[in-house]
DNA sequence: CGTTTTTGACCCGCGC
DNA sequence: GCGCGGGTCAAAAACG
């Protein structure tokens, strides 16, 4: 096999170093069917091609490795800065929330909302009708006993369905448009067992329509219908629960904290959580490495640069 | 044909 | 007592 590389229309700028731009080099092409998992020959050929190029130029390999190492360092520093900015923004948000809640307490509400204190604590993405309840009401005391819990799920905003796949079987018995949220609220009952008292309310967040807010009420009185682990989706974290609510997902950036706080509030066992940066890096790495097109294009860019060095030296 | 979803009507608690 | 708004019911429609 020879180590020739053909031209390809692919053109991805992967160079984060502004002084070292890829488009300074001639566009090259890669033969193959990227992303087609049924035909692995294309990608394998690219890897072989790159390996052939690199093996011919050990010095070049070292140079390239050094450059990538420095870029990696830069990226790490950038990530640290982003993390610091995030922390600063979060503390500012906390201050804002605190001042907002103080002003809400000082101004009387027109109508006493239903719900319990739980929502007040965890309800950043909850509805306003579920927050700021008064103490002392017998109904609310009953609700507090009823094991109410809220989860937040990332959902496709274009998908209008209010379906939360949590592994249990639900029967929808109502849907309502509430006053303070344009998106409808769906009411579900657990249909796995006829006598199961668990109810679920699902509604999109007012602030972010891509967030589904699901409120669970009650406790399943039947054996778990073996909810599939991870059925909440990729970005959700399975949390061992002590009650009927098996999942306490942590989604997105600020939702991580909110989700976990809600877990703690519902007496769910304490959970070790990786740092935000770690989560971000892992998710990015996972997404990129699973994308065969990306890896193929990455290989294409690297090989084109190597070839260019080769030509320049000659 | 059984199950699930839709949707308008009704019920009930709360604030005024 | 009345009106508002959330929650539930139940008949009809849709679905598999």
Automatic annotation (TrEMBL):
The chain positions of domain WRKY read: 159-225
The protein, known as: WRKY domain-containing protein
What highest taxon heads this organism's lineage? Eukaryota
What SUPFAM superfamilies has UniProt attached to this entry?
WRKY DNA-binding domain (SSF118290)
Give the subcellular location.
Answer: Nucleus
- Which terms are listed as keywords in the entry? DNA-binding, Nucleus, Transcription, Transcription regulation
Q: Name one Pfam family in it.
A: WRKY
One Gene Ontology term from the biological process aspect of the record = response to salicylic acid
Q: Where is this region: Disordered?
A: 93-118
Recorded GO cellular component terms are: nucleus
Biased composition, Polar residues: where in the chain? 97-106
Name the SMART domains for this protein: WRKY
